[in-house]
Amino acid sequence: MQISTAFALAVLTLCPLAAIAQTTPATNVTQNHVQNSAPPHVAQTTPMGWNSWNFFAGKVSDQDIRNAADQLVATGMKDAGYVYINIDDTWEGDRDANGVLHTNSKFTDMKALADYVHSKGLKLGIYSSPGPKTCAGFEGSLGHEAQDAQLYASWGIDYLKYDLCSFIPDVMMKQAPDDKAAQMHLMIAAYDKMDKALKATGRPIVYSLCQYGWDAVWEWGPSVGANLWRTTGDIQANWNSIYSILNEQAGLAKYAGPGHWNDPDMLEVGNGKLTPAENRTHFSMWAMLAAPLLAGNDLPNMTPEVRAVLTNRDVIAIDQDRLGHEATRAYSEGELDVWTRHLSGGAMAIAVVNAGSDRYLSHPFHLSLAKLGLHGPLKGKDLWTGKEITLTDNMPLELASHDILFVRVASPR
Ligand code: GLA
Question: Is 9's pLDDT higher than 90?
């Protein structure tokens, strides 16, 4: 159990304490696995859409969500596969005397908003916490799980991101101080409880766990009905954050598959000062990881270049490949990494990422096909130029800093 005291203190500071309601006792994980093992009916490929947090954070409003829905349609993103519009933290108001949660003044009528989003052929996602408060200090679902799930279903919600936040200090650390195993059972039970509450609504709702990748969530996420689980802390719009998250994903491929996915966090494409190469590499590698493609940028002010990245259909097809095999890192040499992903129909995607300085033809990177178990020459498609490329063993590659060579080979051998 890796719960850092520093984080717990940060959560305590962020989340004013509220009364602790009783949680159910820890349940048996193996037993849950049996109970929740019905065939998954959502997220057969990873969810694609847009989430409000990375650009708007606490300022998001009803109008921003409507604008995002309009823009997904107008920019062609919806046609490219982006269907979920996910409202992150800060939509929540207070509970009334019956415990019914109301929206705050930024979201006057959630049902009307859901109807609007649905009228565009899109789906609506929402956010809560198993704790008394969300990470931004708004009302969480503790003690009101079934009531909240029913409320979401009555609004027409299609996706829930459930973020641990204050559950750590207010439940885990209070109910089981100094007992890490008991704390973990409390956490798993809380995620299981909301899964059952969502299923009881009868509405297909994608269930997304957010607990920052602690406690090997990829090992037990499916047992609590999760369709995806965050594998990392929060992403930021800079290369170091993106590249360090990428490296943390190596070794997790075996846990992902249709209906249950690793989530290396939402996209930062188009945010901060990411260069064109960094946007391309970030997007390509999230596709290699079979990650949810949840854009997090300012859609109404998106540049044509960012739009071209987010709507590259060849790259999206890698992400959405129906086999659902996540990429593995085949080898690294200095600051160059080579990843491969097996695709349906026997095809393969190969990504060469340059995390270092520019490599010119005077000192190129030599791609070893032998290390990938392949033999050249191999014809493929360069997914960023759109042109045919022939890969040969030890071929010299010129690759700019933070850029990527991303190739789909139809018949690898
Ligand atoms: C946590 C999550 C973020 C976001 C914020 C909202 O930090 O990891 O993705 O949802 O909470 O408060």
Answer: no
